[in-house]
Amino acid sequence: STFYERYHSLGDIYHWINRTAQENPDKVKIILLGSSYEKRPLYALKLTFNDRPNKKAMWIDCGIHAREWISPAFCLWFVQHSLAFYTFNSDISSILDNMDVYVLPVMNPDGYHYTWTTNRMWRKNRSVSNNCIGVDLNRNFDANWCTEGASDQPCSDIYCGAFPESEPESEAVANFLRIHKDTVQLYLTIHSYSQMLLFPYSYTFDEAENHNDLLEMAQEAVQKIRRYYHNSYKYGSGAKTIYLAPGGSDDWAYNLGIKYSFTFELQDRGRYGFLLPPSYIPKACNEALIAVKTIALKVIEKT
Length: 303
Ligand SMILES: Nc1ncc(C[C@H](C[SeH])C(=O)O)cc1Cl
Ligand SMILES: [Zn+2]
Ligand SMILES: [Zn+2]
Ligand SMILES: [Zn+2]
Ligand SMILES: [Zn+2]
Known about the structure:
The protein contains nine helices and ten strands. It has helices at 10-23, 70-85, 90-98, 109-117, 168-179, 211-229, 238-241, 249-256, 281-302; strands at residues 28-35, 41-47, 56-62, 99-104, 128-129, 132-133, 184-192, 196-199, 234-237, 260-266. The strands form two sheets. Strands 1-2-4-3-7-10-8-9 form an eight-stranded mixed sheet, with helices on both faces. It has a two-stranded antiparallel ribbon with strand order 5-6. The chain binds ligand 9B3 and zinc ion (4 copies).
C-alpha cells in the first residue's frame, strides 16, 4: 500500500501504532516507555513471533532527530515488512524466531511534531532551558558526556543538556535498556542523511573491544546494499567515519553491555538531505532493511 511510501504526521503515526497492535494482537504489544517534555507518550512496539521462552531481543529506535523524516518512515517500514513477510521470508522468520524486536518509531515526538507544524529543519527536542529551546538527544546520553563534539550552549544544535539523561526522552530509553540489558543483544538507531553505517566509538578514536566483529558486520551489510541496490554506504567507527561526538545512544548502549550497536545514516548524500522526497522512501528503506537483516542474522550466528 502507498501508506508506507509516504511521510506521516505524529498523529498519524500514533494512529498507526494503535491500529497495528489491534490488527496483530498476538504479535504486537504496545509498550509505554515514558513521556516527552511536552507530555506526549513514548510508545514502543514489541514484536513477538513465537512464545519460545527467554528469547533474546533487538532494539530499533527512530526519530531521535526531528528533521530526519526517513527514520520514522523506516521504523514503520520495518514493522510492516516483518508482519507481512514473516511467513514467506526465511531471513525475517529466522530473525524473528530467535529475537523479539522493540521498535520505537518516534523517540522525539515533540521535535517531530514541530517539524510538521513550524520548522522543518528542527533537530533537537523541545525542552526549555533559559533563553533557548531544545537538547540534542544524541548528545544527552551518559557516554563521555559533553566533551569535544558537543556544546554546553543551550542555543546550539548539539547542546548536550544540563546533565546526562536530563531529557525525559533519553531517560526513558536509557531506563528501558538498563532494565532489559540482559535480553537486548543488538541496538540500532536510525538517522539521516549521508548513507553510513557507524559503530562505537564516536566519543573517542579508541577502538571498541569487538571492533573487528563490528567492522565485519558493517562491511557485509554495506556489501549487500551495493549488490542488491547499487548504492554505496560508508562504514566504520563514528569518530573516524563521521565526526568525534560524545553522548550518543549507540556508544552508551555499547558501554551498557549491548556489544552489537550501530547507527544508520540513511539516504541520501546531500542532494535532498533531510528533505528526501517520499518517492525515495521505498529504496531508502529497502536498503536499510537488508542491512538490518544482515546484521541481525550475524548477531544470531555469533551468540
Ligand atoms: N554516538 C554517535 N553516533 C552517531 C552520531 C551521528 C549522528 C548523525 Se545525525 C549525530 O550527529 O547525532 C553521533 C554520535 Cl554522538
Ligand atoms: Zn499520514
Ligand atoms: Zn498537533
Ligand atoms: Zn541524526
Ligand atoms: Zn544525521
